[in-house]
Write a structure and sequence with these properties.
The complex is a heterodimer of chains A (about 260) and B (about 220). With about 260 residues, chain A is α/β, with parallel strands linked by helices. Chain A is built from nine helices and ten strands. The longest helix of chain A is centred in the C-terminal third of the chain and has 16 residues. Chain B is mostly helical and about 220 residues long. Chain B is flat and about 75 Å long. In chain B, helix 1 packs across helix 4, helix 5 packs antiparallel against helix 6 and helix 7 packs antiparallel against helix 9. The chains are: A alpha/beta (about 260), B mainly alpha (about 220). The structure holds adenosine-5'-triphosphate (ATP) and magnesium ion.
């Protein structure tokens, strides 16, 4: 299905930890090339939802689809492992704490998975590393180890590592939350660049300014449900729901805006 | 009768050969204890009950009984069930498995303490759990236990003297041989001790180097 509609689709997602319902029947979709921000208070289920997209946290119920293929389909254990590993190659993920592989050089961080999973040659891998690191402005650090990089540089390498798998969609879980304030911008710049290249992205963020300037759509979650969604101007300037308003009041005032 | 080291040079070739055998068995048993340790750690953590239970027994056997007894069992005992191993092989296996069990304990702890985000990042890229363990988690776990595993290797070197009892002509046995001929125990035990010390120094130097080389990768 090359249909551009509903590139990523989540249908009736439910997730419970014991008696705690973290996701309560969430449905949403992301078009090809669309950039969606997920905002909401701590504990509202943003990470859980994002991690359900590549089945890092399995849903208790509901379906996740990517480009016409169900990601979390019911299969025997072995078949499912094969299926999910193949699906995950198509879903890039960027974590709050980077999770770079500390025992590998920047180059190997980027090329390890493509070499192992796509069987590319050393030459192709080198070209891929150069291409991806150049893209995020980290080429000059190709021989460094993660321990020798700043947080912002680590996150840019982590983005390059995810992009090297040529994913169909990129997921960001508070990619800048762990960074010193002065390092946030360099990572935001890279994400903006991806946006201009029409990469499909789902971005969990606490940065309302960034969400407003980069994203096509904003989804506000609270208590495991989507409370409100819409264009950034609408959600930020003119929220319909009282819960959204309360959240934004708190959040925008922190940044001295409102 | 005072000390007289003048008899030593005549037997230096014997002692030297013994030292070579000590190095050989330490290297073989050391490699077995290292890779066996990783293998056992993975079984203990991720194996199903069918492999974990035999492993538990095996672990108990190697941790709860004297190494000397284990060597006797492998060398003399296994013959009765048709497994007739050369002394060197029996010694290397006994020493190697004995220390593999200790290394396995260290590696298990290290694997469990590797940041969960590492496995997640690897799985997110599409690696299977096995691939993620092999490429991402185990290398970091091993890096983290280089110092204590190094200590085990040095303990292994010292315990390699025990294989003399099953007739491997290593350093201790070859010095005993020289003593049998010359009745000069102090001199030859002192020479043997010097050789052990030398090998020890080399091993510690290699260990330092490894630690330094992996310093960046933390
Ligand atoms: N493994 C788990 N076991 C039990 N409860 C969990 C687990 N993971 C998450 N939760 C709970 O699920 C709820 C949603 O968590 P989630 O991490 O998705 O929130 P979030 O919106 O990403 O919050 P934050 O903004 O703080 O990152 C929280 O109440 C959390 O405590
Ligand atoms: Mg979160």
């Amino acid at each position: 299905m090359a249909n551009s509609e509903k590139f990523v689709e989540i249908r009736h997602a439910r997730k419970s930890y014991g008696s705690l319902e973290v996701l309560k029947d969430i449905s949403l979709s992301v078009d090809r090339g669309e950039i969606v921000a997920i905002i909401g208070p701590s504990g509202s289920g943003k990470s859980t939802l994002l991690r359900a997209i590549n089945d890092l946290d399995s849903l208790s119920g509901g379906e996740v689809w990517l480009d016409g293929v169900q990601i979390n389909k019911t299969l025997g254990h072995r078949e499912y492992e094969k299926h999910i590993n193949a699906m995950r190659q198509q879903v890039g993920m960027v974590f709050q704490h980077f999770n770079l592989f500390p025992h590998m050089s920047v180059r190997d961080n980027v090329t390890m998975a493509p070499k192992l999973l796509k069987g590319i040659s050393d030459k192709e891998a080198e070209a891929l590393a150069i291409e991806q690191l150049n893209h995020v402005g980290m080429l000059e650090r190709i021989d460094y180890y993660p321990s020798q990089l700043s947080g912002g540089q680590k996150q840019r390498v982590a983005i390059a590592r995810a992009l090297a798998m040529k994913p169909k969609v990129m997921l960001f879980d508070e990619a800048t939350s762990a960074l010193d304030p002065e390092l946030v911008e360099e990572v935001n710049q890279v994400m903006k660049m991806l946006a201009e290249e029409h990469m499909t992205m789902v971005i969990v963020t606490h940065e309302m300014d960034f969400a407003a300037s980069v994203c096509d759509r904003v989804i506000f979650m609270d208590g495991g449900v989507v409370v409100e969604e819409g264009a950034p101007e609408q959600v930020f300037r003119n929220p319909k729901e009282e819960r959204t308003r309360a959240f934004l009041r708190k959040h925008l005032s922190v940044h001295g805006k409102g | 009768m005072g000390l007289d080291f003048s008899v030593v040079p005549d037997y230096l070739d014997v002692i030297f050969l013994g030292a070579l055998w000590t190095i050989a068995i330490t290297v073989c048993a050391g490699l077995l204890s290292f890779f066996g340790g990783i293998f056992f750690a993975v079984i203990a953590l991720y194996g199903n009950a069918a492999v974990r239970l035999p492993f538990r027994f095996f672990e108990w056997l190697f941790m709860g009984t004297p190494l000397l007894l284990q060597l006797f069992l492998i060398y003399f005992g296994l013959v009765q069930i048709g497994i007739d191993l050369p002394a060197f092989v029996a010694g290397a296996i006994g020493l190697g498995l004995h220390f593999a069990v200790y290394n396995s304990e260290l590696i298990q702890t290290a694997i469990v303490s590797v940041d969960k985000g590492q496995m997640e990042a690897a799985r997110t890229l599409g690696l299977s759990r096995g691939q993620a363990l092999r490429k991402v988690v185990i290398p970091q776990a091993v890096r983290d236990v280089i110092p204590p595993i190094g200590n085990n290797m040095i303990a292994l070197l010292k315990d390699s003297a025990l294989v003399s009892v099953i007739g491997v002509g290593e350093l201790t046995l070859s010095s005993q041989l020289a003593i049998g001929r010359t009745y000069r125990p102090f001199e030859f035990y002192a020479v043997a001790a010097a050789f052990y010390y030398l090998i020890n120094v080399v091993m510690e130097a290699v260990l330092r180097r490894l630690e330094r080389k992996t310093a960046l990768s933390r």
